[in-house]
Amino acid sequence: MKLILLGAPGAGKGTQATFISKEFGIPQISTGDMLRAQVKAGTALGLEAKKHMDAGGLVPDAVIIGMVKDRLTQDDCKNGYLFDGFPRTIPQAQAMKDAGVPIEYVLEIDVPDSDIVTRMAGRRAHLASGRTYHVVFNPPKVEGKDDVTGEPLVQRDDDKEETVKKRLEIYHSQTKPLVDFYSKWAAEGDAKAPKVRKVAGVGNVDAITKSVFDALK
Q1: Nearest to residue 164, comparing CAs of 4, 51, 9, 5?
Q2: Could you tell me which residues come within 8 angstroms of residue 169 by beta carbon, excluding any fewer than 6 positions away?
Q3: Where is this region: NMP (predicted)?
């Protein structure tokens, strides 16, 4: 099973990626993990990436694709792999296609923006313990207070409504067009083109997982 998982921030990709990885015995590959591993190992690609990161710039797509190709040669990828959060842009998708990275499925977890804003903007955290709550779905016993210590809960900057909306804007402008990119490729009748599937990411987690597995049959 070789697939790319797409979905807006807060769509539940991480949860479903864990289930898919376990079901098919494949690694979940994120560019963040690859970058950290290559930088830590001091490889040529890692040093090149670190140079750009230290300068506050983005790591060039060519370096990322090099890391992807390197990662796919490792033993744990022999049954396949799951890309989570990559590719993010059309140039990255095109670079993967040009590099001949095999992909069987592109699966989009689709959640309306309004639901994502509700999900993320309602999160509250007790930073010292890592306990999290949600003002609607999992409220603390006392509003704004941690159940165990009674200390105040905070809303992380990433979960603030304006930040969530900004992240959604970036997703729609840069990453959502990937669905069209892969759909057009599939429509060309190319045997190497992946199958494009979409599942609704709203509702019961078990039901969403069943839809995901049904889509990958």
Answers
A1: 9
A2: none
A3: 30-59
For this structure, is 167 an active site residue? yes
pLDDT band at 2 (very low <50, low <70, confident <90, very high): very high
Mean of the per-residue pLDDT values of the chain: 93
Q: What is the pTM of this model?
A: 0.85
pLDDT at residue 59, as a whole number: 87
Residue 88 labeled ligand binder = yes
List 107's β-bridge partners, or say none. Answer: 5, 197
- Which one of the listed residues 2, 71, 119, 123 is annotated catalytic? 123
Q: How many CA atoms lie within 13 A of 211 on its CB side?
A: 17
Cβ 168 vs Cβ 115: under 8 Å = no
Name residue 84's beta-bridge partners.
5
* Cβ(68)–Cβ(101) below 8 Å: yes
